[in-house]
Every structure is written in C-alpha cells, then in structure tokens.
Structures
1.
Amino acid sequence: MDIIESSKRLAAYTAVDNHVKPEHKVIGIGSGSTVPYVVERIVQQGVEANKGRVFIPTGFQSKELIVSSGLGLGDVDQYPTIDVTLDGADEVDSQLNCVKGGGACHLREKVLAEAARTFILVADYRKNVQYLGTNFLQGVPIEVVPFAYAKVLQNLHQVLGSPKATLRMAVKKAGPVVSDNGNFIIDAPFDREKMIDPFTIMAQIKMLTGVVEVGLFCRMAKAAYFGNEDGTVTVRWDDGKIDQVAAPV
Ligand SMILES: O=C[C@H](O)[C@H](O)[C@H](O)COP(=O)(O)O
C-alpha cells in the first residue's frame, strides 16, 4: 500500500476507534476514497457490535459500501438525528473549516453533518492546511439546479469574484457531471483573501438563487484526523487543541 493510502487508513481507523462507540446506533457514512477504511474498521468491530446499528449513506458510493459490507442501511428521513457521522474532505483549514464536494456529494454530506451530534473528518496529510485553497485548487464545489447554471456562473464571474468558475464536465460521458440529486456542479476558485473567511463567501454563494448547496463546511466538525507519512495521526479539535497520536494496532 502506498503512503497516501496508508495515511488515509490510519486516519480512518483512529477516528473510528475514538468516535464509534458501542452505544452509537445511528452512524453517518460519508463519501470519497478515505471512507472505505472507515467502514472497514467499523466492520472489524464485529457482528455483535454492528447488530441493531443503522448506517446512513451520503450518496450512491457509500450506500453500495454499506450494503456490500453487510451493514444495516437507513436514510436520514427516517433518522434525522445521527450519533456520529464520519466523512472525508478535500481540504481542512486550521479552524476546521473544510472544502467538500470533489466527488459531488456535498449536499447529502452537509445534511448528514448537520444531523449528527458529532461530525468527524478523516483525511491524509495533504489535506491539512492553514488556509483553504492551498492544495485543492479546482475551487469550491457548488451544486446548482440545471436550468440556473448559466445564471449562477455569471453571478460568480461578475459579482462574487470567481472569474474562473466553470461547470464540471463528466469523464466518460458527454456533458456535465450530474449529482446523485440530478443537479449540476460548478467549481469556483477564489483568491486567498476570500478563502481566509470561508463563512462569508459560503453565505454569499448560498444566497444566489439556483444554488442548492455549497461545498464549504464552516466549523461543523468536532475533530479532523489526518494520517501522516511517518505513521502518526494528527488530530485537530474544534477547541484548537492538536494531538499527535501513534497509529492504531
Ligand atoms: O464529494 C465528495 C466528498 O466531499 C469527499 O468526501 C471529498 O471529495 C474527499 O474525498 P477523498 O477522501 O477521496 O479525497
């Protein structure tokens, strides 16, 4: 396994060990390439621990993951209160704000983050940055209703200061990416000045009619776990505390 994959696994395993406890019965499962390790570790807790638990997916990928792992599937309309949600991120800043939606799942992800008593991020060391937009340069993912995309793009270009905002195009399909909710995705890069204060730009984007959700999650997480190249895990907490912990066994 290469360093990045093992860093993802380290972060996921440590986060599950610390936050998925026997009393947790409703668990949100996020999307992306780090989340399979979250599910792997939960399965390792054993059949007894997972009996009676319900797992809520953030999209097609995590639904498949839950079902193929033999875990119980539910949805957030049945379980609007979730004990703990674990999810990946494209980038996390020093205040635990993050960019999400690199896989176009951020609408459902934000619903599950908000529904959760505890929201935990897991990622490899490349995502641990001081300011958003440091390594993840494609921009803030924005889910829009299809008929409004050109108007929202124009708003982003002319009013909100993202002249390079673009409609995300599909690979191996002609035309745009279509989210699990049937919407389009715009990627809008902003300069450092704007990304230093992600809440303000998030609120401005969200006010544009036609926008369904913005892939900026501002101070929603309790903690972010980053797997490091040296086999340790850095944990950033919402109160500013930072722990450096050894890898789980
Ligand atoms: O839409 C996708 C999600 O927000 C993912 O959690 C995010 O893109 C991070 O994915 P990965 O762990 O693959 O970098």
2.
Amino acid sequence: MPVIEFAGVGHTYPGIGSTPVLRDVTCRLAEHRVGIVGANGSGKSTFVRMLNALVVPSTGTVRIDGLDTARDARAIRRRVGFCFSDPDAQIVMPTVAEDVAFSLRRRGLSKQEIADRVAATLAAYELADHHDHPAHLLSSGQKQLLALAAVLVTEPDLVVMDEPTTLLDLGNIRRVRETIRALPQQVVLVTHHLELLDDVDRALVLHEGRIAFDGEPAEARTYYEGLFA
Ligand SMILES: Nc1ncnc2c1ncn2[C@@H]1O[C@H](COP(=O)(O)OP(=O)(O)OP(=O)(O)O)[C@@H](O)[C@H]1O
C-alpha cells in the first residue's frame, strides 16, 4: 500500500487577495480506503490534486512512498490514477474505446493486448455496447463511468477519486461502490455521498482548509453533520 505523507502543507492559489485554501495539513495515510468529506470550498479537491502533483503545495511537502510531488511528478503520475469529478475534463478521445485505449499508450503493449484490455474494461463498466460511440454523446453518468474505466485500465497503485458518484443514478452509484470495494489498490475518495464512508477505513473531515477530524468513518460522519447543525 503506498504511504501518503503531508508535512506542514499550506496552499494559496495565485491571485490578488487570495486566502489560503489549505493550512498546516500534516498527516500520514496508509490505509486501503481513505474517505474525505467537507463543505464546498473546504479544500478537498486541492488536497487530492496534490496526490498526483496536479497541485504542488505553496508550503510544506507531499510525498508518495517517499517521492516528493514537487520533484518527482512524472514518476508519481505513473503510480497514481486520478479521476476528476467532471468527466469532460478527462475524456480526450473521440470514441469510448479510443479514450480507454489512450490511457494505455506508451506502455509497450501490442495492439491486440490494448484491444483486449479495453474490451474487458468496457464490459466491466457496462460500456461494451458503446465501444464506438462518440464519448461526448454519452450520458453524464456514462461519462463518469468512462472516466473511471480509463483510469482503472492503467492499474495504478493508488486511485484518487474526486466525487466519483455525483452524476450517477442509484444503480450506477451501487456499481461504482462495488467497483471500489473490489479494487485491490489503495483508494482515496472525496465524496458528498456520506453513505460511501461506510466503505472506508479512515475518514478526514476538512474544514476551512484544515483537517478538523481524522478517524473512524462513523464518527467523521457525525462530526461533519455537526458542522451544519
Ligand atoms: N485553480 C484555482 N485557482 C484559484 N482558486 C481556486 C482554484 N481551485 C480552487 N480554488 C479555490 O480554492 C477553494 C477550495 O477549493 P476546492 O476545490 O479545493 O474545494 P472543495 O472542498 O473540493 O469544494 P467542493 O466540495 O465545492 O468541490 C475554493 O474557494 C476555490 O474557489
């Protein structure tokens, strides 16, 4: 399981009058499943974007298995798969199959190996019938599943998911939950669907850029609900 270490992490996005989005965040995460909840704007996306060096902290360091995200971004991105909450930000190729295949480029696989892995992945996410479908014409939920499939086909060591179920119907929420449960890899998951916390080993509650709670998922849920009481 990769070890994630945040040491004194602070972040302020550039801009006049911007206030810190993360403040003095220190934690070590090595659990199989980690959940992150918090109010809108509390810093969750910024926190998880640091896991694959999409955002580099203004102060402090983020390390994945000892690799510093400020120095080793390329090596980190080979190990950390990132699923955006907005699938349109991630879908890059014209058709569904081409988009999943794109994730496997430059990996030294034969055309047949790529085709086999793409077909198996699409079948696993109920997208097999949409193999040659234009990706941008999928429904929102199907796009979210495609984005997830395109990340998982690369078999990353750590899977980061930023609100993976926001656009999904009940059936697809269940499908994604089952998928996450079955993943052998470490998963860090940001969600507003609190029931997803039932599946994690440890939960963080972010509040105004700080870790306000860190511990048992059920207690995290109570703590988070208390913020809105
Ligand atoms: N690229 C950016 N440039 C400037 N400000 C940003 C950028 N990304 C995020 N912010 C600001 O940082 C703050 C925290 O945003 P972040 O997306 O990390 O929060 P979040 O907890 O994921 O919120 P939500 O639940 O709404 O997705 C917000 O005030 C947001 O406006």
